[in-house]
Design goal:
The structure is a single chain. This protein is α+β, with helices and mostly antiparallel strands. 38% of the residues lie in helices and 22% in strands. The chain contains seven helices and eight strands; from the N terminus they run H-H-H-H-H-E-E-H-E-E-E-E-E-E-H. Strands 1, 2, 3, 4, 5, 6, 7 and 8 form an eight-stranded mixed β-sheet that branches. A hairpin with a 2-residue loop joins strand 7 and strand 8.
Length: 216
C-alpha cells in the first residue's frame, strides 16, 4: 500500500488545481505531473528488478555430483542426524563396500558414524579433494578423521569406553561414490592404513576388538 500511495501523491485535488491556475476543471500542476512521472519511473525500475531476479532464479545451475558429495561431507562435519545422512543415498540399503569385502547398508554405517559423534564431540572428516573422474563416479581423496575422546564411546556391540581425553588422528582413506539421479547409489571405502573408520577410533582409545566371552 505504501508504494501505491506514493504513485498518487503528486496529484492535487480538483479544487486546489483550479484555484492555483484559475482555470477550474481537473488540470494538474507542474509539480504534480513531475511527481507522477517520477513515481512511474520508480515502478518501472522495481518491475525490471523483480523480473531480473526471477530470471536469475530460473537459470540457476543444478547441483553437480561434486556439489552433492561436498554437501554430504559438510552434513557429517556438522554432525547431522542419521536420517539426514541416509537421505543422500538412493535407499537406506545402499551398499557401503569396504576393501576387505565387508558390505553394510547405508543406514547401518550412518548409525555407527553417529555413535562416533557422541564420543568425539569435535569429530571432523578432513579430506584433500572431491572430483568427478568420470560421469557418475566421484572420488574423494585422502580422507583423514580426527577427534577428541570426550564422552563414552561404544562401537557396534563392543563395550563403551569412558572418555580418555585422547586426540585421535586416523590413517587416511579413499572414498568412491557411484551416483544415480543426484543420490549416492554405492560408496566404496578403501583404507590406506591400519587405523580407519569407527573400529580405528575404538582401538585408538584403548578398546579391544574382541567380544567378551558369553556367559553360561
Amino acid at each position: 500500500m505504501g508504494f501505491m500511495k506514493k504513485i498518487f501523491t503528486g496529484k492535487k485535488s480538483d479544487k486546489a488545481s483550479s484555484k492555483s491556475n484559475g482555470k477550474g476543471g481537473n488540470t494538474k500542476t507542474k509539480e504534480g505531473r513531475k511527481s507522477e512521472r517520477s513515481s512511474t519511473d520508480n515502478m518501472t525500475v522495481v518491475t525490471s528488478s523483480s523480473s531480473a531476479s526471477f530470471k536469475q532464479r530460473k537459470e540457476r545451475k543444478p547441483k553437480t555430483n561434486e556439489d552433492i558429495i561436498t554437501e554430504y561431507m559438510a552434513t557429517i562435519n556438522r554432525h547431522g542426524s542419521v536420517e539426514e545422512l541416509v537421505d543422500y543415498f538412493t535407499s537406506p540399503d545402499a551398499p557401503q563396500v569396504f576393501e576387505d569385502g565387508v558390505v553394510m547398508p547405508a543406514a547401518a554405517l550412518m548409525a555407527e558414524i553417529r555413535k562416533v559423534y557422541l564420543g568425539f564431540e569435535d569429530l571432523r572428516f578432513n579430506y584433500d579433494s572431491i572430483k568427478e573422474v568420470k560421469p557418475g563416479q566421484v572420488l574423494l581423496e585422502d580422507l583423514c578423521v580426527t577427534g577428541t575422546h570426550t564422552k563414552d564411546f561404544a562401537f557396534a556391540n563392543f563395550p563403551a569406553i569412558p572418555p580418555t581425553g585422547r586426540h585421535v588422528v586416523l590413517d587416511q582413506e579413499r572414498l568412491w561414490f557411484t551416483m544415480k539421479d543426484g543420490k549416492i547409489e554405492k560408496q566404496e571405502i578403501t583404507a590406506l592404513g591400519n587405523l580407519t573408520g569407527p573400529p580405528g577410533m575404538y582401538v585408538s582409545v584403548g578398546g579391544k576388538l574382541e567380544m567378551p566371552p558369553s556367559e553360561g
